[in-house]
């Protein structure tokens, strides 16, 4: 596999993941959405199915879609370190494109979000950032990093030691998707379960600097390091553990 292949397939797969993942969050939260107010299980299922779709399309590269997966497989020797930058670049740019496409798909609903049916400004739905990036239930970033580390470790342990044994492929994507659903349902609410640095950072950048959404909320940059650093630390830990075992 060449670096160009790694970049291209990870770019496409991650864009699909974020389109569907940010899309389900928009579907549940925007004021004029027919599914507004749907419960947490809808979001968890939407993200899990997004992983399945994106990873299946990106099968030529192993469907990582996540720098934590890439680092874990590089640490344990299953991936050439020379390909890692190409994976990373495809993943972050794909995440940014996916966020843009999710905004485009829901553009009319974003435009109507801060107005009631009579066209009056309400301001009640101003903070749309959570549609694109994660935020914690409580502002204690040390413990939030612990949560993200634990949640990411569940995902990476399945990839490293589960039925796929570190070799992702078409059938194992079903399993990975269900692990993402399980993490969301069981561990998701303290931090929004990024468990993937680009899943959070790419859309956060797009929301803060690119997407033309009226009356944006804060991009919460004081928290942004948690969903980047904690999953990568988990990747190193699980990679080293898989070598030891």
UniProtKB/TrEMBL annotation:
SUPFAM superfamilies named among the record's database cross-references: Aquaporin-like
Domain of life, per lineage: Bacteria
Entry-linked InterPro entries: Aquaporin-like, MIP, MIP/Aquaporin
Gene Ontology MF: a single term: glycerol channel activity
Principal location class: membrane
UniProt keyword annotations, A-Z: Membrane, Transmembrane, Transmembrane helix, Transport
Location of the protein in the cell: Membrane
Pfam families: MIP
Membrane-related topology note: Multi-pass membrane protein
Positions of transmembrane segments: 6-28, 40-58, 86-106, 145-165, 171-195, 223-244
GO cellular component: plasma membrane
PANTHER family, sorted: AQUAPORIN OR AQUAGLYCEROPORIN RELATED, AQUAPORIN-9
Name of this protein: Putative glycerol uptake facilitator protein
Protein's gene: glpF
């Amino acid at each position: 596999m060449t670096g160009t292949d790694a970049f291209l397939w990870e770019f496409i797969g991650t864009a699909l993941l974020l389109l569907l993942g940010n899309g389900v969050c928009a579907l549940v939260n925007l004021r004029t959405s027919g599914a507004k107010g749907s419960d947490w299980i809808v979001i968890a299922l939407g993200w899990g199915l997004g992983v399945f779709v994106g990873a299946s399309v990106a099968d030529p590269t192993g469907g990582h879609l996540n720098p934590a997966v890439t680092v874990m497989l590089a640490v344990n020797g299953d991936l050439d370190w020379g390909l890692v930058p190409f994976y990373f670049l495809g993943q972050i740019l794909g995440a940014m494109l996916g966020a843009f496409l999710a905004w485009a798909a829901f553009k009319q609903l974003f435009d109507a979000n801060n107005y009631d049916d009579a066209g009056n400004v309400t301001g009640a739905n101003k903070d749309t950032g959570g549609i694109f990036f994660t935020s914690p239930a409580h502002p204690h970033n040390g413990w939030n990093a612990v949560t993200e580390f634990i949640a990411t470790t569940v995902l990476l342990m399945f990839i490293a030691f589960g039925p796929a044994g570190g070799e992702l492929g078409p059938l194992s994507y079903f399993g990975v998707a269900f692990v993402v659903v399980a993490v969301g349902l069981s561990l998701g609410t303290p931090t929004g379960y990024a468990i993937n640095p680009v899943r959070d950072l790419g859309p956060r950048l797009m929301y803060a600097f690119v997407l033309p959404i009226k009356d944006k909320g804060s991009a919460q940059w004081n928290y942004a390091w948690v969903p980047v650093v904690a999953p990568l630390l988990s990747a190193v830990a699980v990679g080293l553990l898989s070598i030891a075992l």
